[in-house]
């Protein structure tokens, strides 16, 4: 209960300070709109700019990109991490892939997949995959050898060792990394939505900025924060359900 009181109190302090700063006139309302203008802009965003449609459009792309990236990165990570010949051949390339400037690859994805939703999902999925694959390999390296040696001593096969030691240990840790990637994924989603601008919060915030509607920009940025917090809480709840041992 105290935690929520602190959160509410902190929000109130920020809003009051924000309003007082606007009242002083030190900063133009064109640069920093008042909280009232920001919250009032949600009416126009909802009625004229189809805010709910754009929220669900962005969430759809985000979820589909996540599912595809996770479905590919986790098996690929286990292959790279547990099969020595494959690791020796590709380990340097797996590490180097992190340094790719992903926003610079948007042109390639347009050439490969066009400018519709498929391209946006593939681009987002690639952005998540680039960070997640080396992370899975790293988590495999972090599995304590004492557990591996123990199951080998008990007569477990290689496959049984993967299923009973590597997989539970790696997945329970990778779940935390996936939560961290939520914030990063929204950055790439906005880049993808600027192509064709058929919908999404990224396209909407860009259009609002071009129209000099700073109040709308602030309102959409607040939505990003709220959606991100909700996603993080949902990931946390799912993590607690699936990996109870981490919270004992």
Explained architecture:
80% of the residues lie in helices and 0% in strands. By secondary structure, the protein is an all-alpha fold. Helix 3 (51-82) runs parallel beside helix 6. The relative contact order is 0.12.
TL;DR of this structure?
The chain is built from ten helices and no strands. The protein is mostly helical and 248 residues long.
What's the SSE blueprint?
Layout: H1 2-24, H2 35-47, H3 51-82, H4 84-96, H5 106-113, H6 117-141, H7 145-153, H8 158-193, H9 201-210, H10 214-242
Helix pairs in contact: 2-10, 3-4, 3-6, 3-8, 5-6, 6-8, 7-8, 8-10, 9-10
Descriptors for this entry?
248 residues, globular, single chain, mainly alpha
- Please mark out the parts with pLDDT under 50 across 5 or more consecutive residues, or reply none: none
Taken in chain order, the helices and strands follow as HHHHHHHHHH
Question: Fraction of residues in helices?
Answer: over 70%
How does the major sheet shape up? none
Shape: globular
Helical segment count: 10
Q: By helix and strand content, what is the structural category? A: mainly alpha
The CA-CA distance between the termini, in Å, is: 21 Å
Mean pLDDT equals 83
Percent of residues in β-strands: under 5%
Please state the CA-atom Rg, rounded to the nearest Å: 22 Å
Number of strands: 0
